Amino acid sequence: MGAAEAKQAILENRTALGIEFGSTRIKAVLVDGNNMPIASGGHEWENRYENGVWTYSLEDIWSGIQDCYQQMVKDVKEKYGIELTRVGAIGISAMMHGYMPFDKAGNLLVPFRTWRNNITGEASRKLSELFQYNIPQRWSIAHLYQAILNGEPHVKDIDYIATLEAYVHWKLTGQRVLGIGDVAGMFPVDSSKKDYNETMVQQFDELVSSYGFPWKLREILPKCLVAGEDAGCLTEEGAKLLDVTGRLEAGIPMCPPEGDAGTGMVATNSVAKRTGNVSAGTSVFASIVLEKELSAPYSEIDMVATPSGHPVAMAHSNNCTTDLNAWVNIFREFTEAMGIEADMNKLFGTLYNKALEGDVDCGGLLSYCYFSGEHMTGFSEGRPLFVRSPESKFNLANFMRTHLYTCLGAMRVGLDILFKKEGVKVDRLLGHGGLFKTKGVGQQILADAVNAPVSVMETAGEGGAWGIAVLASYLVNKDGNETLEDFLDTKVFAGNQGSTLNPDPEGVEGFNMFMERYMKGLSIERAAVDSKIW
Fold first, then answer.
1. What sign has the CA pseudo-torsion 416, 421, 422, 424?
2. 128/141 Cα distance (integer angstroms)
């Protein structure tokens, strides 16, 4: 679509705005009536490690989204000469899970505890045993129960528990609601009823009844909604919160807020059964839409849901590109020290492509990108490590290949359970996120890691912000009872299947050899954590 058509779509209010809070960047994407991006904005931010907790402050949240929105408005002004005052629909997305408890006055009772924390081991274990259902440490219910077990005084004052996007949506609309994709990251859901699992809700209420809290679980959790349902409208107060200039009009319909897993599924057209996607950024997770429930619970596998409520098995690793990016920055510092101005896109592209020249088994090198704890392999803390033997083939290509391989190592542990133990089938696997920005590199390594074809679409770089914009578009543009799957197939992805790379047999063998070394070397990572020298 040309600039004139995009401008007309804005003037005629045939747009949808998606805003997603990623781990290191808040991004806004405005789409036209054909769901194509026509403007965007961004804001860099970073979590803090304070008093043993990974967190973001409320000030960070609001200053970040306000700046992100203004950057998008500026983009609209520069491209189309328009002062943006209204859009057709809005959607908010963010990193899943975590813990934001509020009292009746709307005060946050403890600092936001993000998905990155591995501090709820006891609660996770006890709830998994009670429910006979895997409750990962990241889930909101694990954080709540751990706070109860810890005797934290704030628990009695809880009036509402939200994830990040549920909180932002609440402040923008006044509605305490959440899309089922992230509801399933707070507490187990019943996919047949598209709601919290009522049996488990009652089990939890009974479990904590002796504490005498003045609330029941359902009373303090957001209402569960599925894609396309009414989630309220932007209020006058919400409009002023989002747009500090006061130009944005109230009354804009908003779709159910969703987690980044759900928006990733939408952004890669992976909401139908036997489809899957891999989101690779600060964390990495593979989400596979199941034909049926798994035969047993696994501590390595999260059970979540698509935005329309289909069961999804997720193999989630807390760590992916943080350590890799740190190494690339070392090369940036070197080039600048040599008097060469570093083009980061060229630097990433050069180093990533160099990795493809390396030995398929990385020449005997080993790396762990555990910047934080890694539940998949049993670590509550992380220590990024690079290890080699005197016999290893230590060169730049193998070095970079090792750091790309290890980004997928912990996730591969979970995928082996799905593919080998459970016989899960997937017809289409799509990649999105920062790992895939350099064309063909991360895509090929993922194909080799999972031994399956991997596709990347042109829109993959837009990521979850585009995905939540599409969900906002679905809210106002669906035809009657049109399903999300049909909407995506016919109105969003028609004719766009992306580029596909097949696994290379030698690459598959090489990645398997690396994984053998990776699993045996976990004792080295354990020793680094236990040494307590950092």
1. positive
2. 11
Close Cβ partners of 234 (under 8 Å, ≥ 6 residues apart): 90, 172, 173, 242, 248, 250, 251, 252, 254
Looking up tokens 């709830």, which residue turns up? 127
With helix as H, strand as E and coil as C, how does 77-121 read? HHHHCCCCCCCCCEEEEECCCCEEEECCCCCECCCCECCCCCCCH
Taking a C-beta distance cutoff of 8 angstroms, is the pair 284, 408 a contact?
yes
Using alpha carbons, select from 101, 314, 331, 336 the residue that is nearest to residue 222. Answer: 101
pLDDT lower than 50: segments of the chain: none
Paired sense of beta strands 428-432 and 454-456, if any: parallel
State both tokens at 239: 């409009």
Place of tokens 């709307």: 106
Domain 262-320+411-502 top-level CATH class: alpha beta
CB proximity list for 196: less than 8 A, separation 6 or greater: 183, 187, 188, 189, 190, 218, 221, 224
Nearest-angstrom CA–CA distance, 310 and 190: 10
Report the predicted TM-score, pTM, of the whole model to 2 decimal places: 0.81
Q: What is the pLDDT of residues 222-245, one digit of tens each?
A: 999 999 999 999 999 999 999 999
Q: List C-alpha distances in Å: 283 to 130, 261, 278.
A: 28, 11, 10
d(CA 301, CA 51): 29
Q: Which two tokens stand for residue 532?
A: 């307590």
Spell out the domain ranges in the chain.
262-320+411-502, 322-410+506-530
With helix as H, strand as E and coil as C, how does 185-239 read? CCCCEECCCCEECHHHHHHHHHHCHHHCCCCCHHHHCCEEECCCCCCCECCHHHH
For 81, 112, 433, 448, 519, the CA distances from 442, given in Å and listed in that order, are 38, 32, 10, 10, 21
Q: What is the pLDDT of residue 398?
A: 98
Per DSSP, 440 falls in state T
What pLDDT, on the 0 to 100 scale, is given for residue 251?
98
